Amino acid sequence: MLSLQNQIVLITGASSGIGASCAKIFAQAGAKLILAARRFERLEELADRLGKEFSASIHLLQLDVCDRTQVESSLQSLPEPWSNIDILINNAGLSRGLNKLQEGSFQDWEEMIDTNIKGLLYVTRYVVPGMIDRGKGHVVNIGSIAAYQTYPGGNVYCGSKAAVRAISEGLKQDLLGTPVRVTCVDPGLVETEFSEVRFHGDTERAKKVYQGLTPLTPDDVADVVFFCATRPSHVNISQVLLVPTDQATTTLVHRRN
Ligand code: NDP
Ligand code: 8X3
């Protein structure tokens, strides 16, 4: 495993799924982690595990990325050794509902847009200027296959991930001439709490999403994020689309039952 000793990595949405797996792989490589999410007790449990397993150095932030004032104050009041963020993993995100647009819930729409688009923008806006000043940095955005292919009922979620794709491209263009890299990692089906959140806690419906196929694991995605973040500084992996072998498009999947 490559060493990331003394690298500071901020991961949003680290309390579950892909974010928690990213925390594990970067901790294993010796990075110092800032783990952010709303569920603080989850972060504490994760930090405890990673501390025991890898002697990881971890700073926790209870943070709702939708709250711009909170994002600003949390990031601007980071204690000195933690403020020089080298790698930002914008992972916090969610889907809510799978309704036809004409029957959609305003609250679900706002939650997705506020988290997946505006939250990502707020965190990026407060972190990237420091990267430019220090002449070093990497932003990894977790997008989705949903950015490329809209599926029925996916309307606003797919739109939010298409925005992440466009914003990642825009940031890369705006950072041209600086050493700061931008990567968008776009996974297909990954079994996490994602579908439980989408279906507002309906675990039976959530399980069916992955039934009969072998989905990606959050560790599979973290592996890719880690690979992108550990290339030589002249190499920028701009986009990665990774899907389960059982998935060809958002809607074309192979199920064995
Ligand atoms: P999980 O539901 O397991 O994890 C989502 C994470 O985002 C949690 O840690 C949650 O923490 C955090 N989060 C949600 N809202 C906020 C908020 N307002 N402020 C801070 N943190 C927040 O799902 P995944 O791990 O699957 O999702 C991670 C990312 O991957 C998302 O952006 C998702 O869109 C994307 N993705 C997922 C795929 C999948 O199939 N699972 C495929 C493609 C992309 P907390 O609730 O504690 O705040
Ligand atoms: C998550 C993957 O296909 O459920 O972004 O939208 S999908």
TrEMBL record:
Q: Name one Pfam family in it.
A: adh_short
Keywords on record: Oxidoreductase
Keyword Secreted belongs to the record: no
The entry assigns this protein to a family as follows: Belongs to the short-chain dehydrogenases/reductases (SDR) family.
The yes or no answer to whether the keyword Oxidoreductase is present is: yes
Annotated organism of origin: Aerosakkonema funiforme FACHB-1375
SUPFAM superfamilies in the cross-refs: NAD(P)-binding Rossmann-fold domains
Domain of life, per lineage: Bacteria
User: What GO molecular-function term can you cite, just one?
Assistant: oxidoreductase activity, acting on the CH-OH group of donors, NAD or NADP as acceptor
- For this entry, the protein name equals SDR family oxidoreductase
